[in-house]
Protein 1
Amino acid sequence: MDNLTLWLPAWLAGCLVMLTHVPLGQRVLQQGVIFLDLAIAQAAGLGVIIAYALELNTQIYAIQAIALISALIMAFIFQLLEKYQSHHLEAWIGCSFVITASIGLWILSGSAHAGEHLREILMGQILWVTPYQLSITLLFYLFASILLWFNRQHFYLIFAICITATVQLVGIYLVFATLIMPALATAHLSSVSNKLWRGYGLCLFAYTSGILLSQCFDAPASPMIIISMAAGTIGLLSIHYFKRRIAGV
């Protein structure tokens, strides 16, 4: 029972994350802006670091607000770059990731808990999520869904809102894996619905097996989930490859 109460909130967090990130990842891969998620996630992470530096780490609403503002500023910049620098957008996105990461490391260099804060932002603490954190994340996702319903053009804005909540829930690494790996594993499929359902299946497998493996081996959950997702991605792509070979395509 103790194990169940420990990993069930983490598993629910994974289900909540994949609900939005699988379709967002499909869009990211389609537009060819692979590092968009890392850059905006890093911007949200920078907001969290700034909140820590201002000693607001106990004020959850202040952290959420600063992280969201930071991510929205980055999303607005990308919106402008897509309009005026579309040929080099991926390069600009990569540069922004390096710049925000460097600013974050600079701020953390004066903190006695720098290593701990950096680990939380990169790897998250999915095994320690609370129902309150899940409810806040759900509110962010609902807000993004409402914006999407009324205006489908502001992709970067919607993306930033979703990423802001997720970074604080599961960390930057798991955000990237949940967005990109399912998209890569299903890129060969022509049906959008098939891409989504297989992507959801892959994430469900990864989060479930990764959390169980972390319990069995007393290992951090995020790396186990990412390794499980990588194994699932390779497995799906291998099945597709051998099917093509058998069919003689």
Protein 2
Amino acid sequence: MNAMTYRGYAARIEYDADDRIFVGRLAGIKDIAVFHGTTVDELETAFHETVDHYLEVSAHTGRPAQKPYSGRVLLRLDPETHAAMAVAAELSGVSLNQWAVSTLKEAVQH
């Protein structure tokens, strides 16, 4: 995955072959916050400056900065899948929430 993280924010990174620069955009928020650099060090510095600036502007204007994610997820499943997950969790000796968190973490690490 081409991503960077800083102060709880993540950015998706792409390479622009035409301009020969790395371009990043904050992920998980609706506000537009982009940055770029020609080297990894420049890109990382620009990312940190962008996040810091975003938070400063939010504080200055009184408009709360958007948080990337709250950590809460609501899933709508068919009853059979819900039941199978509950059984898998019980057989693993953990709550359904713990089982789902563990399973989802494992899935996104691949």
